[in-house]
């Protein structure tokens, strides 16, 4: 038993969400998954500019690193600040010392006349906004960035856009990172993606998926509960399962504890090793995490049974690629107080745009 572990991978994050906690309550009550998207997330992403994206990523990456998460697979959308956004995120992560796999989540929900459509017909034409999103992924990857091709979800994309995303992913020899059947509104995702999904795709959520698709499934237990979309039953699939947070922080041990409690509610015979395997599976996409060292103030941090039930186990030190980026709970590369202050300034700018 050891008080150290390898670095953790958050297999699905939205670093832009770091500024959102504390936002003014939406005027309209949210009674459904689509309401939550309309009232919160699609207002937030439309309000983002480059400064907000930078400091949100910086705060999110810092908090990830302080939790022992040394690698982040991010999914980004900022329809009024698309070009360059992936580089902005990568730059912020680089300052903190955290590795990132970035993508821009393309969607056709923003019409060419700037109006928003909550659901998009499979037969619709690809929008200008989707073309710009694909171009940003192409630009970032062509410039040597580490990433994937992002797609928001099948239900906000035309078939033309889904196929174009799959082709661009093939061109770059990467996978597509896409929300799949997160809620019942996306029930057609399985049928629409079946012929184009590949083994290197990241299928995020898969709560209402009706068939087996090629790819890895990313389970986000807390987010699914928070959005009341139902239990994803990840153990029902033969696919490799990874763990993500869907933007609610990046503390992977915390997420694993919650995923275990939710699994156990579903199957009382389940053991923590199942969920800790999901954590390990994240390292398939970031093998470098195996060289990182995370030190906890607890002697059995590498034991799933211990970690699942020791709720106050704290990360004290983190070493990424041989460099100590956290010592005695303090980041070495950045001033955490400054990051929090700058992120708060940007959060206030964001809230102003939301009122
Ligand atoms: Zn997500």
Summarize the helices and strands and which ones pair or pack.
Elements: E1 4-5, E2 8-13, H1 33-47, H2 50-66, E3 69-74, H3 85-96, E4 99-101, E5 105-106, H4 128-142, E6 149-153, H5 159-172, E7 176-180, H6 189-193, E8 202-205, E9 216-219, H7 221-226, E10 241-243, H8 252-266, H9 272-282, E11 293-296, H10 304-309, E12 315-320, E13 323-327, E14 330-331, H11 336-354
Parallel strand pairs: 2-3, 3-4, 5-6, 6-7, 7-8, 8-9, 9-10
Antiparallel strand pairs: 1-11, 11-12, 12-13, 13-14
The protein binds zinc ion.
Residues 12, 14, 75, 179, 204, 246 line the site of zinc ion (ZN).
Helix content class: 25-40%
Q: If you consult CATH, what is the topology? A: TIM Barrel
Supply Rg: 19 Å
CATH architecture: Alpha-Beta Barrel
Biggest sheet, strands in spatial order?
5-6-7-8-9-10
What would your notes on this structure say?
The chain is an alpha/beta fold and 355 residues long. The protein has a single domain, classed as Alpha-Beta Barrel (TIM Barrel), CATH 3.20.20. The protein is 38% helix and 16% strand. It is built from 11 helices and 14 strands. The chain has helices at 33-47, 50-66, 85-96, 128-142, 159-172, 189-193, 221-226, 252-266, 272-282, 304-309, 336-354, and strands at 4-5, 8-13, 69-74, 99-101, 105-106, 149-153, 176-180, 202-205, 216-219, 241-243, 293-296, 315-320, 323-327, 330-331. A 6-stranded parallel beta sheet has the order 5-6-7-8-9-10. A 5-stranded antiparallel beta sheet has the order 1-11-12-13-14, covered by helices on one side. It has a 3-stranded parallel beta sheet with strand order 2-3-4. A hairpin with a 2-residue loop joins strand 13 (323-327) and strand 14 (330-331).
């Amino acid at each position: 038993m050891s008080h150290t572990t390898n670095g953790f991978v958050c297999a699905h994050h939205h670093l832009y969400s770091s500024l959102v906690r504390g936002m003014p309550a939406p005027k309209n009550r949210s009674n459904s998954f689509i309401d939550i998207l309309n009232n919160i997330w699609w207002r937030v992403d439309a309000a983002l500019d480059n400064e907000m994206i930078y400091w949100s990523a910086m705060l999110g990456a810092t908090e990830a690193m302080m939790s022992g998460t040394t690698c982040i697979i991010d999914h980004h959308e900022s329809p009024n600040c698309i070009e360059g956004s992936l580089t902005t995120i990568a730059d912020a992560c680089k300052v903190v010392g955290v590795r990132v796999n970035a993508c821009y989540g393309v969607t056709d929900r923003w019409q060419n006349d700037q109006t928003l459509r909550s659901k998009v017909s499979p037969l619709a034409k690809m929008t200008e906004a989707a073309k710009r999103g694909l171009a940003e992924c192409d630009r970032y990857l062509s410039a040597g960035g580490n990433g994937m091709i992002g797609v928001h979800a099948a239900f906000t994309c035309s078939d033309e856009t889904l196929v174009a995303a799959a082709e661009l992913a093939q061109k770059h020899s990467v996978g597509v990172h896409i929300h799949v059947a997160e809620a019942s509104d996306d029930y057609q995702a399985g049928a629409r993606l079946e012929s184009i999904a590949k083994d290197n795709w990241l299928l995020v959520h898969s709560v209402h998926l009706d068939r087996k698709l090629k790819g890895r499934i990313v389970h986000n237990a807390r987010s699914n509960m928070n959005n009341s979309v139902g239990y994803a039953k990840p153990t029902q699939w033969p696919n490799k399962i990874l763990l993500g947070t869907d933007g609610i922080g990046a503390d992977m041990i915390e997420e694993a504890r919650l995923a275990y409690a939710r699994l156990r509610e579903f199957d009382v015979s389940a053991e923590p090793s199942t969920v800790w395997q999901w954590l390990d599976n994240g390292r398939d996409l970031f093998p470098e995490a195996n060289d990182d060292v995370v030190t906890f103030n607890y002697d059995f941090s590498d034991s799933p049974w211990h970690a699942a039930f020791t709720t106050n186990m704290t990360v004290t030190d983190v070493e990424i690629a041989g460099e100590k980026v956290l010592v005695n709970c303090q980041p070495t590369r950045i001033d955490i107080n400054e990051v929090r202050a700058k992120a708060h300034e940007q959060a206030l700018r964001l809230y102003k745009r939301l009122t």
